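From the methods appendix. Each design record in this collection lists the tokenized structure first, followed by the designed amino acid sequence. Records were kept in a plain field format so they could be parsed without special tools. The example shown here is representative of the layout used throughout.

RECORD:
FOLD TOKENS (430 positions):
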């Protein structure tokens, strides 16, 4: 199977996560000799922060000289981004080879009367094969948008389960209440599993704590009251937490410090299990963590920020960060909406900070046409413009911004176009 054929095949698979069943994953992995049974895992679920936390943990382990697999989603530019070892993406040749093996197993299952997999099921199967083939010491496994029913939950008890911040999202699949969402995320907690929980609201905490008690899971929670933020600027943040002094992270926003602390707590659990992790390797791992599209600075003059906030909780965290970093400044927002999200409410959160909104079209099946968003927000604001293209939005935002600050938010599925633009900025602006 050629690389382009593999990408074409995968991109045409279903995205319907209601199809996810553990039994399906057990069947397809069984046909591939159960590669996951040879691996150790750190399993991560949550609504916001799980990708950043996964990268922090992966880098701590890599800095400690472990061979670390990392499985995350979605990708920004290339499908290969989802499957990495020690921060190196799977090579095209390996991707093609493993996609071919997985497709063969799928074809056998279809002949037996089973349905084709979803994209998430197929890629999870690929990742587990690759990590086993490459003899990873440990794998950091991020769930997609679920927990209990997520394809990654085919694994047995992990070395540590991590639950990041939970908020309302994907309600069409998991229920309309925060309790329903929490129960789904808690599904990765298994019997006797060491578990790290991000501090949550009282009702969410109760669900997670009850799950830990019922599973006899050993629980560890960060205490953010022990966090001292020592420095924050556009390039880095420095903080102290418990006995850790002067820890540096380059991901911006207090929420990224909190995610780093969750990763630090997970590292402490691993130390108790015998992992050779030190204070220095924790510090190095956190400092060297990069995570594209999370308050990513594409340009400093003007300040041009790319952020993946695509639900209300993420947008609120972004708004808080922008107020903190740019007090008394007005910001131009470039916004592309996703179907199934409360775009109207998210824009309302950003509106008090906004000089203007540029609403953009983009090529994705769940993209909301900008005119549709404009109709919904016209009742409470008029400082917006519907753009015909992303390039138009970029050029107009740069040329009209009063305070020289532009922020992109609403989805991750158009990030490649922004990155491509700024990679060729000089020729584009001429």
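DESIGN:
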């Amino acid at each position: 199977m050629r690389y382009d054929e593999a990408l074409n095949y995968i991109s045409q698979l279903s995205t319907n996560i209601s199809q996810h069943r553990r039994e399906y994953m057990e069947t397809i992995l069984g046909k591939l000799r159960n590669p996951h049974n040879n691996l150790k895992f750190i399993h991560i679920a949550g609504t916001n922060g799980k990708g950043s936390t996964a990268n922090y943990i992966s880098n701590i382990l890599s800095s400690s000289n472990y061979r670390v697999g990392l499985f995350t989603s979605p990708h920004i530019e290339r499908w290969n981004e989802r499957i990495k070892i020690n921060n190196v993406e799977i090579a095209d040749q390996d991707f093609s080879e493993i996609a071919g093996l997985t497709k063969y197993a799928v074809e056998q299952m279809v002949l037996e009367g089973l349905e084709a997999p979803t994209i998430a099921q197929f890629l999870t199967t690929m990742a587990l094969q690759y990590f086993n083939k490459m003899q990873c010491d440990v794998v950091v496994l991020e769930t997609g948008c679920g927990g209990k029913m997520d394809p990654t939950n085919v694994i047995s008890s992990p070395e540590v389960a991590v639950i990041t911040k939970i908020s309302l999202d994907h309600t069409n699949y998991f229920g309309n209440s925060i309790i329903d969402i929490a129960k789904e995320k808690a599904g990765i907690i298994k019997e006797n599993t060491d578990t790290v929980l991000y501090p949550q609201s009282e009702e969410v905490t109760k669900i997670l704590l009850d799950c830990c008690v019922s599973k006899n899971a050993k629980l560890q929670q960060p205490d953010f009251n022990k966090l001292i933020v020592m420095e924050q600027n556009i390039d880095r943040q420095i903080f102290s937490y418990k006995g850790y002094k002067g820890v540096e992270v380059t991901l911006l926003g207090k929420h990224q410090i909190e995610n780093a602390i969750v990763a630090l707590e997970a590292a402490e659990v691993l130390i108790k299990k015998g992992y050779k992790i030190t204070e220095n390797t924790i510090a190095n791992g956190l400092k060297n963590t990069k995570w594209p599209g999370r308050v990513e600075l594409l340009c400093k003059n003007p300040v041009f920020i790319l952020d993946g906030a695509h639900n209300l909780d993420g947008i609120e965290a972004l708004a808080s960060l922008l107020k903190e970093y740019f007090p008394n400044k007005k910001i131009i927002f470039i916004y592309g909406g996703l179907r199934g999200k409360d775009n109207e409410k998210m824009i309302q959160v950003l509106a008090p900070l906004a000089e203007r909104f540029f609403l953009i079209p983009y090529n994705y099946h769940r993209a909301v046409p900008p005119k549709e968003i404009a109709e919904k927000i016209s009742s409470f604001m008029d400082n917006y413009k519907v753009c015909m293209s992303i390039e138009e939005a970029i050029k107009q935002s740069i040329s009209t911004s009063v305070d020289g600050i532009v922020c992109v938010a609403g989805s991750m599925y158009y990030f490649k176009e922004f990155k491509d633009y700024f990679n060729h900025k000089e020729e584009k602006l001429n």
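APPENDIX NOTE: The chain has two domains: 3-287, 296-429.
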